[in-house]
């Protein structure tokens, strides 16, 4: 998913959009290497490897990749079941302008 995520980061630069990754690589060092090699510019948390880490367990992740879409009100939407690009576009456009 890295190329798709990278394209979303570029498309929504300077818009109300963010990606946060949770990574199951075997070690934090391996994660840092992957982030550098794949040019991942968004934050990615190390979760202890596999789906048994504390973040994956709390969020009910059973396999990778798992995508959650959270709107500007902090609500997890059911949009991840639809076309991800369409859901993100709609949510970004729903954010009220800054005052």
Task: Provide keyphrases for this structure.
99 residues, 37% helix, 6% strand, mainly alpha, 4 helices
Commentary on this structure:
The chain has 99 residues and is mainly α. Helices cover 37% and strands 6% of the residues. The chain is built from four helices and two strands. The chain has a two-stranded parallel sheet with strand order 1-2. α2 (28-37) links the parallel β1 (21-23) and β2. The longest helix is centred in the last third of the chain and has 11 residues, at 84-94.
Weakly predicted, low-confidence segments: none
Report how far apart the termini are. 34 Å
Rg result = 14 Å
The count of β-strands is 2
Number of helices: 4
The arrangement of helices and strands along the chain is HEHEHH
Helix content: 25-40%
Shape: globular
Strand order of the largest sheet: 1-2
- Main structural class: mainly alpha
User: Biggest sheet, in brief?
Assistant: 2 strands, parallel
Instruction: Quote the beta fraction.
Output: 5-15%
Mean of residue pLDDT values: 88
What's this model, at a glance?
The protein has 4 helices and 2 strands, in the order αβαβαα. It is mostly helical and 99 residues long. Among the domains are: 24-61, no CATH class; 64-94, no CATH class.
Topology:
Layout: H1 2-11, E1 21-23, H2 28-37, E2 44-46, H3 54-59, H4 84-94
Parallel strand pairs: 1-2
């Amino acid at each position: 998913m890295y190329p798709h995520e990278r394209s979303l980061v570029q498309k929504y630069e300077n818009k109300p959009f963010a990606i946060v990754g949770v990574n199951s690589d075997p070690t934090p060092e391996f994660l840092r290497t992957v982030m550098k090699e794949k040019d991942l510019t968004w934050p990615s948390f190390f979760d202890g490897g596999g789906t048994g880490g504390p973040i994956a367990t709390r969020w009910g992740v059973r396999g990778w990749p798992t995508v959650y879409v959270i709107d500007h009100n902090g609500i997890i939407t059911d949009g991840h079941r639809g076309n991800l690009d369409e859901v993100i576009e709609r949510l970004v456009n729903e954010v009220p302008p800054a005052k």
